[in-house]
Design goal:
Radius of gyration: 25 Å
Shape: elongated
CATH architecture of the largest domain: 3-Layer(aba) Sandwich
Number of domains: 2
Bound molecules: zinc ion
Number of helices: 14
Helix content: 25-40%
CATH superfamily of the largest domain: Zn peptidases
Number of strands: 19
CATH class of the largest domain: Alpha Beta
Structural class: alpha/beta
Distance between the termini: 36 Å
Strand content: 15-25%
CATH topology of the largest domain: Aminopeptidase
């Protein structure tokens, strides 16, 4: 689960009231075999010690916290690929073997760049901030369009010109509001083949200093950087002469020598099992979890009487990766009606980067991807419970509730009341319209018993209830089986915010 510091502050006080169980009718389930028989097959395929073996390995000190900046992340990826292969799950055509490689790029701002408009010159780092770092040596017309209303762009010829906008009205709030909209404007300008976006940012010192410090170190280049036009904020103090009047055209001289880009090569790991039903096997259920975590602390720290420095991430999310591996082992032996895709994502802890990359570059077409049951965890404080982040939002609740019930587990929803939905790898596919909740360890309330393990050195296997971990894994597999065999295609609950996107994806024209 990605960093939740801000969320904690907001939700800690309201957490108690959301712990509720849902008792839905078992008759809605699509199960065709008695659960006991299926459970026996799951137990035979995955005896307890074998079920948790990947958890013990992935969360071991040897993997050093599976951080994207360390070589052990590749060891973890290769291990998961080997597990998929030995399970008998197949590579997905279009992937690179069991991998989907992607690259993250990091840059620093150029220390020496300047931007001159008329008689005013701005220096990168001091009075100008460059949001990416490429070489620019350009002397070109600049047209001022005032504020950033896209309507004003209609009919303007911007090809080969810089565009200057006025943003902010002197306050932090107005600057923040306008800066949150510029990415969209940048895309519009890019389509119009403008040379770059210059933002005349009228704000207070606090906001400018905060932006400066956010941009002062290494920062990640936007994934669309390869095609994005340059974007530069220019410091404007209330009372300064306007750089250019709205509608006026001047000249801009931009001289920036880029710093080297550092590239980090990462991988999502994936496999699939083909479904048995000729009418349903074209539909895929995605079983996902992230396998990266936080690595090694800069300084060893004392936690629970133990000096430690490795963020083992046993709950978050070696357990989730293990359940996906175990699901591959079970479904390769007992394929369900629909096809099943297994994926473990990288770089979740940095902001869902692996799953965002996948959603933007799907290997199985999204219109064939009918459901995603993601797994992620902070910690747990109730071993009779599964927390389904996204409960009451998709048609598959009853399947998951019935599967959990077969293992003596009840199901509650997001104990924060909904904020966790965007904190894990279910979100990028959900935003594409695919019903996608996250299956998590039981959180009766979102309180210190969760925070004391979440992103802490003590998130280790040694203090986990392994009987519960096995039940968690097996109930996940049974849930996935019921969903993959459901006669009806999964959908969002009627009236859900994502229902229109779902309709557009699966029923174009209706
Ligand atoms: Zn996490």
């Amino acid at each position: 689960m990605k960093h939740l510091a801000l969320l904690f502050a907001i939700t800690a006080s309201i957490s108690q009231s959301f712990a509720q169980t849902h008792a839905q009718s078992a008759s809605q389930s699509s199960m065709t075999q008695p659960p006991a028989k299926i459970q026996a097959g799951i137990a035979t395929t995955l005896p307890a010690d074998q079920a948790i073996a990947p958890l013990l390995y992935l969360a071991s000190d040897r993997l050093k916290g599976r951080y994207i900046g360390r070589p052990e992340i590749d060891t973890a990826a290769q291990y998961i690929a080997d597990q998929f292969q030995s399970a008998g799950a197949r590579t997905i055509p279009g992937a690179n073997g069991y991998f989907q490689p992607f690259t993250l790029s990091f840059v620093r701002q150029s220390p020496t760049g300047t931007i001159t408009i008329g008689s005013r010159t701005f220096s990168i780092g001091a009075t100008a901030l460059q949001f990416d770092a490429e070489n620019i040596q350009l002397n070109a017309p600049v047209v001022c369009i005032g504020d950033d209303s896209a309507a004003q762009l209609a009919g303007l010829e911007l090809k080969g010109k810089f565009v200057l906008i006025d943003a902010g009205s002197g306050t932090r709030a107005s600057a923040h509001k306008d800066m949150s909209k510029v990415r969209q404007l940048r895309q519009v300008l890019q389509a119009k083949q403008a040379l770059g976006l210059l933002i005349n940012l009228n704000t207070d010192d606090d906001y400018w200093t905060a932006l400066q410090s956010a941009m002062s170190g290494e920062h990640r280049v936007e994934p669309d950087k390869a095609t994005a036009i340059p974007m530069i904020a220019l410091r404007y103090h209330a009372g300064d002469q306007p750089l250019l009047a709205k509608g006026a055209t001047g000249n801009a001289s931009v001289t920036i020598t880029a710093t080297p880009i550092r590239e980090l090569k990462l991988k999502n790991v994936m496999a699939f099992v083909q479904g048995t039903d000729p009418n349903l096997r074209g539909q895929y259920i995605v079983l996902s979890a992230h396998y990266d975590h936080l690595g090694v602390a800069a300084q060893p720290q004392m936690e629970e009487g133990k000096l430690d420095s490795i963020y083992n991430g046993a709950r978050d999310n070696a357990l989730g990766s293990t359940a996906v591996i175990d699901a591959a082992k079970y479904f390769a032996r007992y394929p369900p009606k629909r096809s099943v895709m297994f994926v473990t994502y990288s770089a979740e802890e940095e902001g869902l980067l692996g799953s965002e990359y996948y959603a933007a570059h799907p290997i199985i077409p999204l219109a064939h991807t009918v459901y995603n049951l993601n797994i992620d965890n902070a910690s747990y404080n109730d071993t009779t419970l599964i927390s389904l982040v996204g409960l009451n939002r998709t048609s598959e609740d009853s399947n998951i509730i019935n599967a959990c019930k077969a293992y003596g587990l009840s199901v509650n929803g997001d104990p924060t009341g909904g904020s966790l939905f965007f904190e894990s790898d279910n979100a990028p596919l959900a935003l594409k319209g695919i019903p996608a909740p996250t299956y998590s360890l039981g959180m009766r309330s979102f309180d210190s018993t969760i925070f004391n393990r979440y992103h802490r050195l003590s998130d280790e296997t040694g203090n986990m209830d392994m009987h519960y971990a096995v039940k968690f894994i097996r109930a996940y597999i049974l849930s996935a089986l019921y969903i993959a065999n459901d006669a009806t295609q999964p959908m969002w609950t009627k009236g859900d915010a994502y229902e229109p996107t779902w309709k557009a994806l699966f029923n174009p024209g209706k």
